[in-house]
Write a structure and sequence with these properties.
The chain is α/β, with parallel strands linked by helices and about 180 residues long. Helix content is about 40%, strand content about 15%. The protein has one domain: Tetrapyrrole methylase, N-terminal domain (Cobalt-precorrin-4 Transmethylase, domain 1). Helix 3 (about 75-85) links the parallel strand 2 (about 60-65) and strand 3 (about 90-95). The longest helix has 12 residues, at about 110-125.
Amino acid sequence: MSQTSTDPSEDSSPTTVQQQRCRMDDSGPTGPTAVLATIGYEGRSVDEFIALLLDAEIEILVDVRETPLSRKPGFSKRRLAEALDAVGIEYRHERLLGNPKDNRDAFRAGAPEARSRFLAHLNNGSRTSYDEVIALTSAHRLALLCFERAHDQCHRSCIAEQAAAENSGLQISAL
């Protein structure tokens, strides 16, 4: 992102996306501008995926895959982080927010007990990571990443729903 001058009288100096948002969205961390988006890359190209993030003005992408590897070109941790960095989006991997492997198939199948197991996982061993990520929404537009394109078929929906329940001003958006 570009550097800016500290002299407010210099109107011609470039501003960062974050500075523009701070001027436009001055309602505070629990105001209507606190955003937590979710996105899956299933069936999307890297270019389409990044375009969606840019259109939504996402600043930080939090990868909530337990293992950030993909057979789909461009979606493994290193390559994705590089592509995001090139457009000014920060990449962050939070392994502890991943859905444990033994719970994934049941979750995708819509089993209610799989949602309960993931929520127990989220609120026990993963709570510190969860709290750190949700705290970022007070200053940044954030998106949670996993594979499944359908928000409700992915564990990231549990993370988003819990965040919305605990933070009344948080706007959830499925990209």
